[in-house]
């Protein structure tokens, strides 16, 4: 650390990279009818609850997301103060590996929810437990094989990444694999609308991770210890999610101990489950589209930080503080997507919609968004000084536009989850275009903090407009089709 650097500059950079790692449509209403549908009583149409019921359903998940996000920020700031500057860089590298390899997990959730709702639609819902058990055993076998490979080859990987110890690399790569396995059961919980157990699982994951990481770092194991702590958190979260998912899908009964024959059968063809080639093909396509979509969301959320860090390193710490403050809203949108995704998928297949549930999510997002935007407009420097340090206020004029940009991105994320849930895959192409446009735009301003935030805001506004337009057209087309069917 030189005399020209703020004493806590690495903290903001680690927070920016680590917070995302913690974060491991309706056919019968269009135009003016959209608002009226949200005011109908629960007796107006089967399966459409009141706004109050929706808030009660989503509330525990939203609260768990807020607590998990807060704990993640506390953990990363604490690590920034416990580790040396060199260790910050090592931790940043390990976190980047985790982010890249755990990304398919979110796509797995989308694919699982879509497949389960397909089975419910064609009367094959009784196959869910059989399929989930088989896939979980197959996934566990693959994760264990992956763990053996990465631990055996850890020294070679460490040399490639210029790491002193391969234990941290092996632990973080294994943790990413366990997160993907965890996503299977989280998808099952979402498909069953078991939002309280899902919220508890989020808290179990971050709680165990926080305790394990701090204990190992304080014991002197450095970033490798932090990586092992993350792995411990994921293993415990996988076990809890498996128990909760089996309990939810078996009428409250806990999981049974699997017989050895069950593990052998997991690698053999199942004539009942493997007969639907069309379903398998649909699930694979859903998985690929969701992976692309959520990867583009990650680009839309973080590319500005990367460009500022490259083109304007003197302001990278200050912009990092602005970024962390702004982008926690997007994490909230992703967590609440865990409520909206199954609601949209299930109701769409029933010939209904989840507009009321969409409104619930937007209301829950609006509360922190309005509060943060108000503070960002009224006292941006004071906010950054209180949360970080007075050395991080040089980019304060970028806070308000970036907060607004992330609010718009949060709405885009929510609508994307809705569209993916009902099989509207074109949204992936829109997100790819938006990510490319944002990357080009921020490169043009060469890392100037306020200019970067303003072009980010402009691109996010256009992106949301395109998604909202497509969202509306989806409803209009289905409504016209229903009206035509009613006349014949």
**Strand and helix order:** HHHHHHHHHHHHHHHH
- Number of strand segments: 0
Which class do the helix and strand fractions yield?
A: mainly alpha
Proportion in helices: over 70%
Largest sheet: none
- Domain tally: 2
| Mean of residue pLDDT values | 76
Tally the helices: what do you get?
16
The span between the termini is 76 Å
Rg on CA atoms, Å: 23 Å
Net shape: globular
Low-confidence stretches are: 1-48, 257-261
Strand content: under 5%
Question: How does this structure look, described?
Answer:
The chain has 488 residues and is mainly α. It has two domains: 23-57 and 276-488, no CATH class; 83-274, no CATH class. The chain is 80% helix and 0% strand. The chain has helices spanning 9-22, 33-38, 51-82, 85-121, 128-152, 154-160, 166-191, 195-249, 260-265, 277-311, 316-349, 355-378, 380-387, 399-421, 426-444, 449-487. Helix 3 crosses helix 12, helix 4 (85-121) packs antiparallel against helix 10 and helix 10 packs antiparallel against helix 14 (399-421). The longest helix has 55 residues, at 195-249. It is globular, with a radius of gyration of 23 Å.
Give the helices and strands, then pairings:
Elements: H1 9-22, H2 33-38, H3 51-82, H4 85-121, H5 128-152, H6 154-160, H7 166-191, H8 195-249, H9 260-265, H10 277-311, H11 316-349, H12 355-378, H13 380-387, H14 399-421, H15 426-444, H16 449-487
């Amino acid at each position: 650390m030189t005399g020209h650097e703020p004493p806590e500059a690495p903290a903001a950079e680690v927070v920016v990279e680590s917070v995302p790692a913690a974060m491991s449509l309706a056919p019968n209403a269009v135009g003016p009818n959209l608002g009226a549908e949200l005011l109908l009583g629960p007796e107006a149409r089967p399966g459409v609850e009141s706004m109050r019921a929706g808030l009660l359903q989503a509330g525990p998940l939203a609260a768990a997301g807020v607590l998990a996000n807060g704990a993640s920020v506390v953990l990363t700031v604490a690590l920034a103060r416990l580790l040396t500057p060199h260790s910050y860089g090592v931790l940043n590298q390990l976190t980047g590996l985790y982010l890249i390899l755990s990304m398919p997990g979110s796509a797995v959730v989308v694919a699982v929810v879509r497949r389960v709702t397909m089975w419910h639609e064609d009367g094959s819902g009784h196959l869910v437990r059989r399929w989930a058990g088989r896939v979980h055993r197959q996934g566990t076998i693959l994760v264990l094989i992956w763990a053996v490979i990465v631990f055996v080859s850890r020294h070679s990987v460490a040399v490639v990444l210029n790491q002193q110890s391969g234990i941290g690399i092996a632990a973080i790569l294994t943790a990413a694999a366990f997160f993907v396995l965890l996503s299977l059961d989280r998808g099952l919980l979402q498909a069953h609308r078991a939002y309280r157990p899902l919220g508890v699982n989020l808290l179990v994951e971050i709680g165990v991770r926080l305790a394990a990481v701090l204990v190992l770092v304080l014991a002197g194991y450095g970033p490798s210890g932090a990586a092992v702590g993350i792995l411990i958190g994921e293993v415990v979260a996988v076990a809890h999610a498996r128990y909760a998912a089996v309990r939810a899908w078996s009428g409250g009964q806990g999981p049974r101990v699997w017989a050895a024959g069950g593990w052998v059968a997991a690698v053999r063809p199942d004539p009942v489950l493997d007969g639907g080639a069309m379903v398998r093909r649909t699930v694979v396509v859903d998985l690929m589209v969701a992976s692309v979509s959520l990867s583009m969301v990650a680009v839309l959320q973080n590319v500005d930080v990367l460009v500022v860090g490259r083109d304007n390193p003197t302001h990278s710490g200050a912009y990092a503080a602005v970024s962390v403050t702004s982008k926690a809203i997007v994490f909230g949108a992703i967590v609440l997507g865990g409520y909206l995704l199954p609601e949209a998928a299930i109701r769409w297949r029933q010939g209904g919609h989840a507009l009321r549930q969409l409104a619930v999510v937007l209301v829950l997002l609006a509360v922190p968004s309005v509060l943060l935007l108000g503070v960002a407009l009224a006292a941006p420097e004071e906010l950054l000084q209180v949360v970080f340090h007075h050395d991080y206020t040089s980019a304060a004029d970028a806070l308000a536009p970036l907060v607004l940009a992330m609010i718009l991105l949060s709405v885009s994320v929510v609508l994307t989850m809705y569209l993916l849930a009902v099989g509207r895959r074109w949204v992936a192409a829109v997100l790819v275009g938006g990510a490319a446009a944002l990357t080009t735009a921020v490169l043009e301003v060469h890392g100037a903090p306020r200019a970067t935030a303003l072009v980010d805001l402009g691109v996010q506004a256009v992106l949301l407009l395109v998604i909202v337009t497509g969202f509306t057209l989806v409803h209009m087309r289905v409504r016209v089709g229903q009206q035509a069917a009613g006349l014949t």
